[in-house]
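Revision sheet: structure tokens.
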Amino acid sequence: MAITLRNKPAEELIKRIGRQRGLGPSAVIIQAVEAFAKMSAPALPAEEIARRKAFIEAFLAEMAAKTSDEDRRIAREIEADMYDENGLPK
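Predicted:
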């Protein structure tokens, strides 16, 4: 998949870095992306973590309230047909 860069200042920066290091634009971008990927992601604020947990817990509670014993039995049967005793796909 080709990527077209439509940001002239960024394009010039990539070219300048490439000239300085004797690299083509793709190599500059790959090195930059690899360096970025190695960086740790910023931590979420505690409030955001709490909000997400509360959302998930509310969703699961709502789903549990809407799921009958018959629904659970059917889901277990389907799962038994899909996976072996070790939890691997059949």
